Amino acid sequence: MCVLAILDQADGYAYDIVTKLAGGVEMSEGTIYPLMRRLQNDELVTTYLAESEQGPPRKYYRLTAQGRRELQKLKAEWRAFVADVEKILGEDNE
After folding, report:
1. Which pTM was predicted?
2. Total domains present in the chain
């Protein structure tokens, strides 16, 4: 869900995505590539190559329409989960 949310804001390449996740979620470059391949296979993202000022062209990932729908579904599920946990913790009144 976090990767889809990042790509909903702007296209990105794998290292860029890992860097953006680093603030709250631990994910290494070794983890991101299999995840991105799975998202691509599920047609949630598409890719394109773009020239880089620092080395070879970079593979960028772009969220598809199906990816945006999946993100909205995951966000709704997440919000429901958080609400349920807050009820259990007795924090739904705050």
Report:
1. 0.85
2. 1
